[in-house]
Write a structure and sequence with these properties.
The complex is a heterodimer.
Chain A lengths: L4 H5 L8 H24 L5 H21 L17 H27 L14 H33 L7 H23 L12 H23 L8 H20 L2 E3 L7 E3 L3 H36 L6 H14 L15 H13 L1 H14 L4 H6 L1 H23 L2 H7 L3 H30 L8 H34 L11 H38 L23
Antiparallel strand pairs in A: 1-2
Chain B lengths: L2 H8 L3 H19 L1 H5 L15 H12 L14 H7 L34 H9 L1 H4 L10 H4 L7 H10 L6 H5 L1 H8 L7 H8 L17 H11 L11 H6 L2
Helix pairs in contact in B: 4-13, 6-13, 11-12
The chains are: A mainly alpha, B mainly alpha.
Chain lengths: ~550, ~250
């Protein structure tokens, strides 16, 4: 019985050169010192707990590296293979986050049915654990899956090895430290309150450092590429990295109360802050949850289907359309508010135009499956990707529809928005990720296939049923809510009190929590299946595309 | 050269793609956001607009900490049913000093933009201790620990200073007296109470919000904040013509 086969089979630390091991320890020491300073500066403040957390995380990392520090150096044979250890770790972390994130999600869903389903303390009340759910699934699950798959795809499509072995680990571990600071922070009451940008100033600064290194890995690998053209998946990954950086930096501009305080005040206020926040918020959807995952789709869907992408030109049109139009659409979150009307109108207009590049992508994906539909029928992995493309098309249509001002007057502030988000998050983001992970796990760990094809099948149907139940429940509750709030009686007064609408929601909240539970069970089965695939060695030949071309000369930087 | 021919060349250059992405993605934000800071009409003028007192600001930070914004909006839209249900629609000036804004995106509970003084302090305290004691079908979490937790005041001056750094016009006197003002606002019988109305205006409410005079709790701060929502200025209640004339 080997509890950590992932790491013991091909010891990951031993793959690092001696210099890389030294540098890793040095970096950990520097970050640990920063953690210590934070803890010391904020003795009376919750930031001290985070300082201690950073310190302990770095100490553990140093011990882990130190354990294998004297392992023999890797042979030069490593240059004949792509460097996939960080991708492996990223996949495992991603599956851990999805189980945690979905579990928190279902917990908050049940809290809306049974409001006292807390542990009494503040940490477990709805307002604090809802962002734990959103951060764990978006950034924990989605982000780790993006880092893992982007590094995998980048190497295969450029036929170049990553430029060094340390920086991808820095990105992966640093990113997970950010996620950990985020979710523990909410439970401690540390939040900026900006939706999907809740982490406080020090975590935000840290993410900038991590993100710059991530971007540099991309540029350095592209510089070493042996393919003259940069493949479409990499356009999307680059747009994801670049634009998320812009959004993150601008939206999080803030002044901390002091260097020993977790609290900061946003540089913007009121209407400008609202517009900046939803410019960020909507484009977090666009460039984190769409562009990044489109990058995933453009690689894994054609490879698994065994078909080339249907249209090169459609992919160009949809890429630049998405990159340009999305950035205008954020103001549709602010219809009928104190935001100037011209900005609202621009947001609505561009949201409608956005349907063109969105459907170009969804159509491109589905048409790629022409000639492979028998595989979709037989293989749940490819079916995950097909359904993801369908949900992508559906939720982008719904999004454009809801951005129309008069529709938005009904849908805004209601559960319809929540349903829309989950159609995209469960139906598109999670499904394309699960499909890609099921494809890549056997390739990464050199297995003949996943541990159990029937478990993938079970996961698929649980995920689909859960998503459909969830979305239908929220459509019903959202539209009923919206209608009840605006219904007038014959005497010209409002027909329903707010509490009336609350009572009407209860059955739908139960249905939603049940749908979420199905999705969670599916996620757990998936995690188990992946774990067993990794544990049970069933060696297979390396996939043909997994070896870089033989090296002709020493590559720069090695 | 066709557009696709151009792209065929572009996608061979990493830096070209990077610059293209940054350029194309920046336009939307520049056109929509930058003018909001320069066009004067974006935020109305309201001469009677007052600042949050230190106690109200502390309450606002508790509101943020507990994630209240996840279920309660603070933005009444320009729709008839919203105005009938919640009061006059929200003006930009009303959140002028809100760093960050708390307009919200979801109404699992009702809008709170004009909740101030709609209910008594006693109702608010009872409701926060256990919402189901006053609204039997409520699904709001209970916040009973607010009443037993003392409010931290030693860092309030630093908070006001940071607020000033982002543009809220707190005076040196306000910053120096932040902690004492927080205490005074919740203890009308104390000698500190007078300074609060002197610095923040006559409209400031000075009351033992949590019903426990002599002790300053997080409940004091929370209720003080809820009671000031929608009451920092009267601009929204004035007829449109008059509001325009204020400029």
């Amino acid at each position: 019985m080997r509890p950590f086969p992932t790491f013991s089979q091909a010891p990951m630390i031993a793959q690092l050169t001696r210099t890389e091991r030294q540098n890793a320890i040095l970096i950990c020491l520097v970050i640990a010192a920063c953690g210590f300073l934070l803890a010391a500066a904020g003795r009376d403040d919750p930031i001290s707990i985070h300082g201690a957390l950073i310190f302990v995380a770095c100490a553990l990392m140093i011990f882990r590296i130190g354990k294998d520090y004297y392992a023999p150096e890797p042979s030069d044979e490593r240059f004949a293979h792509y460097y996939d250890d960080p991708s492996k770790a990223g996949i495992v972390l991603s599956m851990a986050w999805v189980v945690v994130g979905l579990a928190f999600g279902d917990w908050v869903a049940w809290q809306l049915v049974y409001p006292d389903l807390t542990f009494g303390g503040g940490w477990s009340s709805f307002g604090r654990i809802r962002p734990v759910h959103t951060t764990a699934v978006i950034f924990g699950f989605g982000g780790n899956a993006l880092i893992a798959t982007s590094l995998y795809v980048l190497q295969r499509t450029t036929r170049a090895r990553l430029p060094d072995q340390l920086s991808p680990w820095f990105v992966l571990m640093g990113y997970n430290l950010f996620c950990l600071l985020a979710v523990t922070g909410y439970m401690l009451g540390i939040t900026q309150s900006k939706e999907y940008a809740e982490p406080e100033w020090y975590a935000d600064l840290w993410l900038v450092v991590v993100w710059v290194v991530y971007f540099l890995i991309y540029l350095r690998t592209l510089a070493r590429r042996k393919e003259p053209h940069i493949y479409v998946a990499n356009w999307y990954f680059m747009a994801f990295i670049l634009v998320v950086a812009i959004l993150h930096i601008v939206n999080n501009l803030a002044v901390p109360v002091s260097l020993g305080s977790a609290k900061s005040y946003s540089a913007f206020s009121g209407v400008q802050d609202a517009m900046t926040q939803w410019w960020y918020g909507h484009n977090a959807v666009a460039f984190f949850l769409t562009a990044g995952f489109l990058g995933m789709m453009y690689y894994f869907l054609p490879v698994v289907a065994g078909r080339p992408i249907f249209s090169y030109r459609l992919s160009i049109i949809s890429f630049w359309g998405i990159t340009f139009f999305y950035m205008w659409a954020g103001s549709h979150h602010l219809h009928y508010t104190a935001l100037p009307q011209w900005v609202q109108t621009l947001g609505m207009t561009f949201s409608l135009m956005l349907l063109v590049p969105s459907w170009a992508s969804a159509g491109n994906a589905l048409l790629t499956l022409n000639g492979a539909w028998h595989k979709v029928r037989d293989d749940a992995t490819l079916r995950f990707m097909m359904v993801a493309a369908v949900f992508y098309g559906l939720s982008t249509f719904e999004g454009s529809f809801m951005a129309i001002r008069s529709v938005n007057s009904l849908s805004h502030y209601t559960d319809w928005t929540v349903g829309h988000v989950h159609a995209g998050a469960l139906g598109w983001v999670a499904m394309i990720t699960f499909g890609s992970i099921y494809a890549v796990v056997p390739w990464l760990w050199k297995r003949t296939g996943m541990y159990s094809a029937r478990m993938i099948e079970a996961h698929f149907w649980l995920a689909l049923a859960g998503t459909v139940i969830y979305v239908f429940a929220m459509w019903n509750s959202g539209i009923i809510q919206g209608l009840m709030w605006r219904t007038y009686s014959d005497s010209g007064t409002l027909a329903y009190s707010f509490v009336d609408s609350l009572i009407a929601m209860r059955p739908y909240y139960i249905a939603r929590a049940f749908g979420g539970l199905l999705f969670l069970i599916g996620g757990c089965i998936g995690a188990y299946n992946i774990w067993m695939t990794i544990r049970e060695p069933r060696e297979a030949e390396a996939r043909a595309g997994d070896l870089p071309e033989p090296r002709l000369a020493a590559q720069p930087g090695e | 050269m066709s557009i696709f021919g151009f792209h065929y060349q572009l996608e061979r250059k990493a830096i070209g793609l990077v610059l293209g992405i940054v350029l194309v993605s920046s336009i939307g934000g520049l056109v929509e956001i930058a003018p909001l800071f320069t066009i004067h009409q974006t935020v109305e003028d309201a001469k009677d607009m007052r600042l949050y007192t230190p106690l109200e600001l502390a309450g606002r930070n508790i509101y943020i900490r507990e994630g209240c914004y996840a279920c309660h909006s603070q933005m009444i839209r320009t729709l008839r049913d919203e105005v009938d249900r919640y009061g006059p629609y929200s003006l930009a000036v009303e959140s002028k000093y809100d760093h960050p804004m708390l307009w919200g995106s979801k109404r699992t509970g009702p809008d709170l933009a004009r909740i101030g003084e709609k209910y008594s302090d006693q109702w608010q305290v009872a409701h926060l201790i256990n919402p189901r004691d006053v609204v039997p079908v409520s699904i709001m979490p209970a916040y009973d620990w607010l009443l037993s937790t003392d409010l931290r005041t030693d860092d309030l001056s630093a908070h006001l200073k940071a607020q000033r750094a982002v543009g809220v016009p707190y005076t040196d006197e306000m910053i120096a007296n932040a902690a004492l003002d927080a205490y005074g606002q919740a203890n009308p019988d104390s000698p500190r109470a007078e300074g609060v109305t002197k610095r923040y205006g006559k409209a400031t409410t000075v009351r033992p919000f949590d019903g426990l005079p002599g002790r300053l709790t997080e409940m004091d701060a929370m209720v003080a904040y809820l009671q000031v929502l929608g009451r920092l200025t009267d601009a929204a209640r004035k007829p449109v013509a008059q509001a325009g004339a204020v400029q």
